[in-house]
Amino acid sequence: xxxxxxxPEGTNKIPDGHALGPLPLDKIASMNGMEIMQAMMxxxxxxxxxxxxxNILMEEAAKGRVVFNxxxxxxxxxxxxxxxxGWISTIIDSTLSCAVHTTLEPGELYSTTTLNVNMVRPLxxxxxxxxxxxxxxxxxxxxxxxxxxxVDAKGKLVAHGSVTCMIFPNPAA
Length: 173
Fold this sequence. Notes:
Blueprint: E1 4-6, H1 25-28, H2 33-41, H3 49-54, E2 56-62, E3 65-70, H4 85-101, E4 108-119, E5 130-139, E6 143-151, E7 157-169
Antiparallel strand pairs: 1-2, 2-3, 3-5, 4-7, 5-6, 6-7
């Protein structure tokens, strides 16, 4: 297995008809975080439903680092016509927590306990892809932290944030 996994070029959405749902805890119990990420990117597991709702997708994963892309649309706008902060928070949480996921040992799961997002400029729903990159800052036995950035199609910083994730045993392990 390679150290970095990426989706094929031009594959920027979940295929129509692909199963949606949570990861099968019994099947992932013996897999480490990178093996799970590879299986998700190969679409061997159901896609998280939130990815369809928010139009986001993991593009690249390496141990301690993940890149997501997303294309906010009209459904993600707030009353002022800019992209809702909830969409921005979701792509940041997804990216940063998945960076933590890449560090998991077999039999471990995680959950976000704290999410901090700083929005520094408005994001317009122009149909252009944005990119979010997250990196693990600390990985302990029970807590992990990650931080990252969200940039627009021109590479301008839109938001930055951090997460704290709790690491806990997979009950199916």
